[in-house]
Amino acid sequence: MSSTYHTRMGDGRRIEMTKEELKKDIEAGASEAAKKIKVPDLTDNEKGHLLEIFTAPERVVSVSPEDLIVMSTDVGPDTIHMNYSEFGGVGVPVHTVTANMIAERVVGHDCVMNTFRAGNFKGTSVSIIQVQQDIENLVKNSIAPSLYVGMPNFGAYYKPDGPFDNVGDLISKGKVEEGLKIYEDIIPACKHDISWVAEMTAQVGVDGINIDTAAAGGDGEFLASLQATEEIKEKTEMSVLLNMANHFVLGMHGGIKYDGQTLGNMMPHQQVKVAEKAGVDIFGPVVNTNTKKSVAWNVARAVTAIKECSRVANIPIHPNLGMGVCGAPMVEIPPIDAVSRAAKALVEIGRADGI
Amino acid sequence: MHGIRTAGDLVMRMQMKGMRLNKAKEYVAQKLGTDVFTLSDEYAMKEIREELGIGTINSVPGQPKGLKAKAKIAEVLDIKIPCVDMLR
């Protein structure tokens, strides 16, 4: 009887797999990325190294000191005080500045980062004075670079939260032309909110803006994020981090283009090139986790896509490694055995500059 | 890289200016007068950070913190830090 190794499914459940089963899933995951994301497959050596990572007996694995990377995190400090549903937060009753000082001085975060409740730029734009006040206090009391994070979040522009009719509802009723026109009208509104919030935070000395979960609302939201980046780089000296929501850009519209290229269905290695063109300083690619496959399958697929993204990139890439992305299981408290294996693979095979 | 425990915040600053990981590490190491391997060494980096006045993780009375440490980081790394410019 062959020995087995503890690992997990993409939904976080603990399972046992033999070395042969792990090898088969690694090959299948890499092959899936090569076929669907249209990137080169992993080499036999890289697949062998992945197998070593997944058969390592330690609960937590790591990289050598020379390969250590930085973490830009996803509003990591604010998870100390925020709620679970929006931020995976733990609800400790402290202020955002205190939370960031704890993250910097106790946890050792490489940057400090805060956001406003709900985290979308449209919502933040009406509370900007509070945001500026928080950032002023944060930059006075922290040493690490500071980032303000928000989400473009097209969904916030639909009635009843916003002024626009729901594009999905219109299209599902057969009003396709009307829906597409409204979708196009949201782009400048979203771009304006991102740019305006960025400028307001720059006024109080923040180092950079993190445009997070870009393109969650499709190709129009991606265009708004890229156009906002251009404007931010033109009007301010702040850095721009652009983090994606999916590994492919949803073609909600289908005809949206940037720099002559259709944005719908773009994959990470293509997304990073338009991000560079817009002026992005750090790009965060994503590969979504398949909960019905093993973590080994998911990590193999993720690193195959990220490796090609890193190869073509001229700017740092920080793959989004969290609940349900880049090989981490889609579960409320991501198990550290699975997350550390995904992180090691992203650094050693995916050549990530950060996470 | 563990932030201000080592040199993670400094490498992050250079990445935010578009430098990829290895180039950012080499740039920081050169500016600190050390090597890339030392950047992740808590023991060595505490001494380097104290000597340069760029802030350490321990709350030592009199040691630069917050804006004061960042003003020194801007000088050492030869970069602009927006909130430091505003202070000046």
What value does the Rg of chain B take, in angstroms?
12 Å
Whole-Å distance between the termini of chain A? 39 Å
Number of domains of chain B: 1
Which fold name corresponds to the CATH topology of the largest domain in chain A? TIM Barrel
DSSP helix count of chain B? 5
Order of helices and strands of chain B: HHHHH
Task: Please bin the fraction of helical residues of chain A.
Answer: 40-55%
Report the structural category of chain B. Answer: mainly alpha
Report the average pLDDT across residues of chain A.
95
| Largest sheet geometry of chain B | none
Number of separate structural domains of chain A: 2
Could you name the CATH class of the largest domain in chain A? Answer: Alpha Beta
Which geometry of chain A do the CA atoms define? Answer: globular
Describe this structure in words.
The complex is a heterodimer of chains A (355) and B (88). Chain A has twelve helices and nine strands. Chain A is of the alpha/beta class. Chain A folds into two domains: 1-57 and 285-355, no CATH class; 60-161 and 188-283, TIM Barrel, CATH 3.20.20. A five-stranded parallel beta sheet of chain A has the order 3-4-5-6-9. In chain A, helix 4 packs parallel to helix 6 and helix 10 packs parallel to helix 11 (295-312). Chain A is globular, with a radius of gyration of 20 Å. The mean pLDDT of chain A is 95. Chain B has 88 residues and is mainly alpha-helical. Chain B has one domain (3-87). In chain B, 56% of the residues lie in helices and 0% in strands. Chain B contains five helices and no strands. Classes of the chains: A alpha/beta (355), B mainly alpha (88). Chain A binds chain B through residues 65-66, 68-72, 104-105, 107-111, 139-146, 202, 204-208, 237-239, 241, 281-282, 313-316, 353-354, and chain B through 1-5, 8-9, 11-13, 15-21, 24, 36-37, 40-41, 54-55, 57, 59, 65-67, 69-70, 73, 80-83, 85-86.
Q: How is the topology of this model organized?
A:
The complex is a heterodimer of chains A (about 350) and B (about 90).
Chain A: E1 4-8, E2 14-18, H1 19-36, H2 44-55, H3 84-87, H4 96-107, E3 112-114, H5 121-125, H6 128-141, E4 146-150, H7 167-172, H8 176-203, E5 208-214, H9 219-235, E6 239-244, E7 257-258, E8 261-262, H10 268-278, E9 282-284, H11 295-312, H12 336-348
Parallel strand pairs in A: 3-4, 4-5, 5-6, 6-9
Antiparallel strand pairs in A: 1-2, 7-8
Chain B: H1 8-15, H2 21-32, H3 42-52, H4 66-77, H5 82-87
Helix pairs in contact in B: 1-2
